[in-house]
């Protein structure tokens, strides 16, 4: 089932330089004076241009304490979210909700990564959503202050020195020093590694039983920690140990545009302070008799958050307040008409506000000129997808300078025929193609009379770039040629597509004619990466459609696997490989040089703030030297960066071949997200000819009871549906490899 994904991993991501580091490197595009100039630069192939978000997803993170908002969340799931999905579908959008009750798996809880997952989900919403991103239901409960998974070594030592004997023993039991972390840190051990009965095979009752042992000890450590940090740390350093508002800090306080992105639905139980202390009341408000709550000033923190922090960044019109009274069952819509009316009003207001925010984001994009042109233009979206792909490759490129220099020499002189790059899977062809496109732009920089570049004239060279197989329109020859022709027309100032030509041979001729016209204005570079990824339709693999000779001022580069579909043999015949002059235009992308590979490994670890023990580093270097392919090196580092200094690793820790280490990658994703979910989700994607949207995939998997039962380990929703974040998490963990 995974063959297509393994193949695309091998083909498109053989890049020794790409990482998923802690501080992930990102391409920062050039901003232009207005949207029309941006549109022009993108369509002309300026890869340095800032590419706008073209996501068709509206994705919101719902933040609240779980114990006091059960009815609100359930009603929204049943009555409102389906309506918003249908509404967004009419606009060509997908509506998704992140609710941290949905589909949180054993491994995340066991390894104390729930907070890390929350923050990652908020960041994903900010990156993906075209409209609103964050909704909070903050009311009277400040919420759980997560016990830290990592503590900086210098702070840990100071804290432990102030603990009593019992607490000190617990800290030494649960924390280990990780000297692979930069800087050094102590790491909270997984529950299963300390408490034997707590494991993935245990029954829910057994997990609750053994999990309770951890929480009892965690409460002692938490209370001791809060007391100790007051004694040894300055206020600026100790604040992180007292905060429960991390989600709101990231989702609202730090939001780029809270007015557009964020909404607060505030339920005010007006008489809650007059109620006697009961276990039920503790679900809605921190107990006034809780020593840790009093010592950490929870009520003051909550009041400051509600009265100062949120209102200081969130406009009043983004705050919706509902007033209710307490009942002996808390919030009880089944028996209290006032509470039922409150939920009805909440749902109606949520639906109205969300639709308004979504429409504002869509209308706003449509009226901003260049970005609006892109959002509603399939060709522009195609061009920008390939530009963003090139940007992501270029931003983290490292090494291979001799090979890159050899390729850029092709651009330094007139070209009569294309440059052919070939190499085995995972050798780094795709990244080199991206760097070559940037090198063309670097050679031809446009300058105004005052010596600056305001972008109004577009880039100094036209660049037509396609990473074949990464989009639907770059997967078939006919669509590819039409796309190149229509982008060329935009470069010539013609803002409409050409006539529909059926003959592929005629299309290929038209491409050359368009390149000739473009070359009379500026230098032109065409880059087609991985032509072996084209579908076999229209005899694409025979390469008859490539130009036999190039017009003046045009350069043309293609890459391919050496053995796939006989493509390289066809290219050698077409471009007369048997002659010395033409043979120079064939460049093999070879394996990594040993010295290069060592430098690359260390650089990738450095970017992730990680080092390895001597034994671990020797194992990593030995494995990479044995295979010497960038993709293999990258996957090995991905695994090694997760090793702690106390991790026990042996020769079997890293699979010995590219295929096997990709299987190792899939096995890890199955453990993290569930074997059934991963296998069936990727299986459905594999057999679908044109792919599936996340919502379509969710609809299909919602019919699979085995997947649903496996997904909801900790909470069963009122409607048996697969949470969209379950699919998104799988795709997110694979996106750097596809």
From TrEMBL:
InterPro entries for the chain: AAA_16, DUF4062, NACHT-WD_repeat, NWD1/2-like_WH, P-loop_NTPase
Domain DUF4062 residue range list: 59-145
UniProt entry keywords in alphabetical sequence: Repeat, WD repeat
Domain Orc1-like AAA ATPase: from-to ranges: 396-540
Keyword check for Repeat: yes
Every NWD1/2-like winged helix-turn-helix domain range: 658-712
Source superkingdom: Eukaryota
Stated name of the protein: WD_REPEATS_REGION domain-containing protein
Protein source organism: Macrostomum lignano
